Amino acid sequence: MLADFPELKIDPVDFGRVAVLLGGDSAEREVSLQSGAAVLSALQSQGIDAFALDTAKADWQLQLSGINRVFNALHGRGGEDGLIQGLLDSLKIPYTGSGVLGSALGMDKLRCKMIWRQLDLPTPDWQEIVIDRQNFSTLEKQLEKMPLPVMIKPYCEGSSVGMSPVFNAVELKPALELAAKYTDHLLAESYIKGGEYTVSILGGRALPSVHMETPNKFYDYDAKYLANDTEYYCPGLDLETERLLGDIALRAFKAVGCSGWGRVDFMRDSQGNFWLLEVNTIPGMTSHSLVPMAAKSIGLDFPMLVKVILAATLTGNPNITTKDYGA
């Protein structure tokens, strides 16, 4: 498997000076700080000249002067939605992950689902909810034609921030109020009961899936980052089903303009059908994270994984594995 990643042979000096963007001021700041710290340690352990740069600091842009590339470990709005990507493009600084379009569409759950539906990719039914701050009571009326159960979520947050499952009418108002703390546009998505899966994308290939099981109502923020009773299975499926799911993940990833690395999340219903939930263009890189878990299953430890991701910044083609760095 490791022979598929010639990036591992790159001399650390070739990367030059690397800024690891982390922190920021989104709802996912704490997770980003953890991801960025792990990435920074992994880069430095391999002799790569890297330093941390918290974008919540007022003068952070001044420190971009003289750097050669960026490892983007920002999560959520402001770092994962195309804004930072646009800035770095204008400064002609190479960076990890998807570009402006893929980042923006990946963060925008509503438009992402619209594209998937147009391409006949399987995603649960949904309804957009627009908040009227002057008349909050209209929110529940907007959902009169959407049968319960549903998942209420902000249309542009990650890490399950602001998400709630709604199984009865009593749970609806608290779920809407929680999601409305983050944005004026919400998404009510048909609730799929079943197994939760994710497929990591790295250099144009799908890695083995991870199947997550949690005693919580769903794979929420607590289950992702805090709990110790979440169980993981990787690979999560038999070989034939892995290939099927990997193909859907790659098609969904490319459909919204994503590139480099990322993660595609699914639900599997009781009939065995897979349903696309969302794309994560900068997945977590913490001790509980899923991309490192999938990479480890094919022989890539965490430092190796980080180096492979960063290596995509050395070429305009995110699928850098097509370049041979020699034996």
TrEMBL record:
<dbReference type="InterPro" id="IPR000291">
    <property type="entry name" value="D-Ala_lig_Van_CS"/>
</dbReference>
<keyword id="KW-0573">Peptidoglycan synthesis</keyword>
<dbReference type="Pfam" id="PF01820">
    <property type="entry name" value="Dala_Dala_lig_N"/>
</dbReference>
<dbReference type="GO" id="GO:0046872">
    <property type="term" value="F:metal ion binding"/>
</dbReference>
<dbReference type="GO" id="GO:0005524">
    <property type="term" value="F:ATP binding"/>
</dbReference>
<dbReference type="GO" id="GO:0005829">
    <property type="term" value="C:cytosol"/>
</dbReference>
<keyword id="KW-0479">Metal-binding</keyword>
<protein>
    <recommendedName>
        <fullName>D-alanine--D-alanine ligase</fullName>
        <ecNumber>6.3.2.4</ecNumber>
    </recommendedName>
</protein>
<keyword id="KW-0963">Cytoplasm</keyword>
<comment type="similarity">
    <text>Belongs to the D-alanine--D-alanine ligase family.</text>
</comment>
<dbReference type="InterPro" id="IPR011127">
    <property type="entry name" value="Dala_Dala_lig_N"/>
</dbReference>
<keyword id="KW-0464">Manganese</keyword>
<keyword id="KW-0961">Cell wall biogenesis/degradation</keyword>
<feature type="active site">
    <location>
        <position position="159"/>
    </location>
</feature>
<keyword id="KW-0547">Nucleotide-binding</keyword>
<feature type="binding site">
    <location>
        <position position="278"/>
    </location>
    <ligand>
        <name>Mg(2+) 2</name>
    </ligand>
</feature>
<dbReference type="InterPro" id="IPR013815">
    <property type="entry name" value="ATP_grasp_subdomain_1"/>
</dbReference>
<feature type="active site">
    <location>
        <position position="289"/>
    </location>
</feature>
<dbReference type="InterPro" id="IPR011761">
    <property type="entry name" value="ATP-grasp"/>
</dbReference>
<comment type="pathway">
    <text>Cell wall biogenesis; peptidoglycan biosynthesis.</text>
</comment>
<keyword id="KW-0460">Magnesium</keyword>
<keyword id="KW-0133">Cell shape</keyword>
<feature type="binding site">
    <location>
        <position position="265"/>
    </location>
    <ligand>
        <name>Mg(2+) 1</name>
    </ligand>
</feature>
<feature type="binding site">
    <location>
        <position position="280"/>
    </location>
    <ligand>
        <name>Mg(2+) 2</name>
    </ligand>
</feature>
<dbReference type="Pfam" id="PF07478">
    <property type="entry name" value="Dala_Dala_lig_C"/>
</dbReference>
<dbReference type="GO" id="GO:0009252">
    <property type="term" value="P:peptidoglycan biosynthetic process"/>
</dbReference>
<dbReference type="InterPro" id="IPR011095">
    <property type="entry name" value="Dala_Dala_lig_C"/>
</dbReference>
<dbReference type="InterPro" id="IPR016185">
    <property type="entry name" value="PreATP-grasp_dom_sf"/>
</dbReference>
<dbReference type="InterPro" id="IPR005905">
    <property type="entry name" value="D_ala_D_ala"/>
</dbReference>
<keyword id="KW-0067">ATP-binding</keyword>
<feature type="domain" description="ATP-grasp">
    <location>
        <begin position="113"/>
        <end position="311"/>
    </location>
</feature>
<feature type="binding site">
    <location>
        <position position="278"/>
    </location>
    <ligand>
        <name>Mg(2+) 1</name>
    </ligand>
</feature>
<dbReference type="GO" id="GO:0008716">
    <property type="term" value="F:D-alanine-D-alanine ligase activity"/>
</dbReference>
<comment type="function">
    <text>Cell wall formation.</text>
</comment>
<dbReference type="GO" id="GO:0071555">
    <property type="term" value="P:cell wall organization"/>
</dbReference>
<dbReference type="GO" id="GO:0008360">
    <property type="term" value="P:regulation of cell shape"/>
</dbReference>
<keyword id="KW-0436">Ligase</keyword>
<feature type="active site">
    <location>
        <position position="28"/>
    </location>
</feature>
